[in-house]
Amino acid sequence: MTTTEQAFRELTKAHMGQVLSCIAEAVDAAGLTGSTLGQMLDYHMETGGKRLRAMLPLAVAGALGKEAKALVGFGAACELIHNATLVHDDLQDGDEVRRGQPTVWKKYGQAQAINLGDAMLYLAPICLESVKASPGARQRVLARVFRDVLKVIDGQEREFALQARSSDDIDQEAYRRMVRGKTSGLFALPMAGAAELCEAPVEVVEALEEAAGHLGVLFQIQDDILDLYGEKGRDQAGSDLREGKISALVVAFWQRANDADRRRLMQLLRADRRASSDAEVGWAIDAFREQGALSDCLAEIETLRGQALASAAFSAYPDLRRLLEGMAQIFLAPIGDIMESVG
């Protein structure tokens, strides 16, 4: 276990109960205690998870020399927003299982999953109200909440637009823009938002936002790799391919493949999810490795890791740089064996 992992574990042990209490208080303040919405929220949250978005603001506060517990309310807000996107993602992707349990839409229905995700987004600002900060900092962070949530939604829409494209070409820049919205926003919010609440210098806030962008893409690439070569806790391997998603591996393969292999991959991506054969998914898994797409993605991960730490603004905050280094290690731990086997 790395030092950062241990630090997150200790933060979780010390403060996760407070985060969940803050969420419960927000539910009560909104008049939702005992409602179906409240029950669905409890059901989804009880499936667990790393709680990384809840603890990130607290970790940033500590790295800036502030008290971690001061940002419990913001951690609760970030956790709600992250989980709202998971509830909506599961519905939009048709995923029936999350962490070994039926997803919200599978258990309660599609309409109720939409309602829950929407409610969680609106509960987040209520949690933020409990944070003691200057009016200016609070206003900036509230604006950031709205802005970053919209970035995530825009990224999600762009993902579906990529799937629905009529062209047989795969646009690498369109993929990168989609990932920076969908994934990076969920890291920029807890990191840069925490720095704003701690009244950190503007250059540090901006550096954290940029670092979050790189770490978000890094995280998404490892997630794409994990979907094919690891264990994501979903109902079957290769779910992203079966859903027709354009992943980092698909983009990298497209740059290398001949016309015949491109056509075969495109047929797989455009097939109905229920008609996607295990044999074709297996072909893609082997082809991505054999033709260098997997190696290309792993090389890009190393580039992104360096870019996330490059800002001179971190030189005055060594604990912040160590936190970013540790986050990269945590993100890459699930594919550590894959990195070693390919490297």
Structure description:
This protein has helices spanning 3-29, 36-45, 52-63, 72-93, 104-108, 110-128, 135-163, 172-197, 202-229, 239-242, 248-256, 259-270, 278-290, 293-308, 318-332, 336-342, and strands at residues 97-98, 101-102. The protein has 343 residues and is an all-alpha fold. It has a domain at 1-132: Farnesyl Diphosphate Synthase, CATH 1.10.600. Strands 1-2 form a two-stranded antiparallel sheet. A hairpin with a 2-residue loop joins β1 and β2 (101-102). Keywords: Magnesium, Metal-binding, Transferase. It comes from Lujinxingia vulgaris. Pfam families: polyprenyl_synt (PF00348). InterPro entries: Isoprenoid_synthase_dom_sf (IPR008949), Polyprenyl_synt (IPR000092), Polyprenyl_synt_CS (IPR033749).
